């Protein structure tokens, strides 16, 4: 039921914070669950319970776009951080809805370390070296991601304790991406923070917000399989393959999907 740019929170939430113009679709998580319910009869007819019992649900990642909108809309970090508990509650209630429908195996991804993305690194540069962590990422933005992930893990654990017959798996995006930025060669890559599809001229990231991937002036590299970041905010196929391996075998998923 995925939709590009989707948020966990609905439009009214953003409108109430003066961010109505920052949201360009109307497919939040709750709406996607409703769509799924409406389509269920055409997917599994009268045997939905057994069908869903043998299905794997990947719910997210949700949260990233909920933070992009206010951050790009000029909201301060303290205010954006205050949204996190509400976003986690929305994700949790949607997981409950899916469990009530019959889902028993659910993968719940956390958010990525947004302070490591060239888009943020380019838009929010700092002359203070203390604003960056040891791998060159923006500390405050990664703290936001970490806070979200910590609350999400607590919520997933709470749901697991309530539903003994359900298999809830927290999938860690953050660790994989941070580890790859730190040592890309350990994952068969060459570049950590350098964009593949972008334009030169802004620092060492090959990113220009006025010549983003797909726009005039941008071009793709010839070796995307060596890059972590595709366009400044999305990962490459090679990076996602490494993430998927970690989720399947349990290195970055608790418990692992195949375990």
UniProtKB/TrEMBL annotation:
Keywords in alphabetical order: Glycoprotein
Family annotation (Pfam families): Lipase_GDSL (PF00657)
GO molecular function, one term: hydrolase activity, acting on ester bonds
Keyword Transmembrane among UniProt keywords: no
SUPFAM superfamilies attached to this UniProt entry: SGNH hydrolase
Transmembrane segments annotated in the record for this chain: none
InterPro entries in the cross-refs: GDSL (IPR001087), SGNH_hydro_sf (IPR036514)
UniProt signal peptide: none
The UniProt record lists the keyword Endoplasmic reticulum: no
Family to which the UniProt record says this protein belongs: Belongs to the 'GDSL' lipolytic enzyme family.
Protein name in the entry: GDSL esterase/lipase
Organism whose genome encodes this protein: Panicum virgatum (Blackwell switchgrass)
């Amino acid at each position: 039921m995925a939709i590009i740019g989707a948020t966990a929170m609905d439009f009214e939430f953003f409108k109430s914070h003066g961010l109505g113009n920052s949201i360009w679709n109307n497919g939040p998580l709750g709406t996607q669950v409703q769509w799924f319910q409406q389509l269920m009869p055409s997917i599994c007819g009268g045997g939905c319970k057994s069908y869903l019992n043998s299905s794997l649900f990947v719910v997210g990642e949700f949260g990233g776009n909920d933070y992009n909108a206010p951050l790009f809309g000029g909201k301060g970090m303290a205010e954006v951080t205050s949204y996190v508990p509400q976003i986690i509650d929305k994700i949790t209630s949607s997981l409950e809805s899916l469990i009530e429908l019959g889902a028993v195996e659910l993968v719940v991804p956390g958010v990525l370390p947004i302070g490591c993305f060239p888009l943020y690194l380019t838009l929010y540069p700092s002359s203070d070296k203390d604003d960056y962590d040891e791998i060159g990422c923006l500390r405050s933005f990664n703290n936001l991601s970490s806070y979200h992930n910590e609350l999400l893990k607590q919520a997933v654990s709470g749901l697991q304790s309530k539903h003994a017959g359900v298999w809830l798996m927290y999938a860690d995006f953050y660790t994989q991406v941070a580890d790859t930025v730190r040592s890309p060669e350990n994952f068969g890559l060459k570049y950590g923070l350098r964009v593949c599809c972008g334009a030169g001229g802004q620092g060492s990231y090959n990113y220009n917000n006025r010549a983003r991937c797909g726009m005039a002036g941008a071009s793709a590299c010839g070796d995307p399989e060596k890059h972590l970041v595709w366009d400044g905010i999305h990962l490459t196929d090679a990076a996602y393959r490494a993430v998927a391996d970690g989720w399947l075998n349990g290195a970055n998923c608790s418990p692992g999907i195949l375990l």
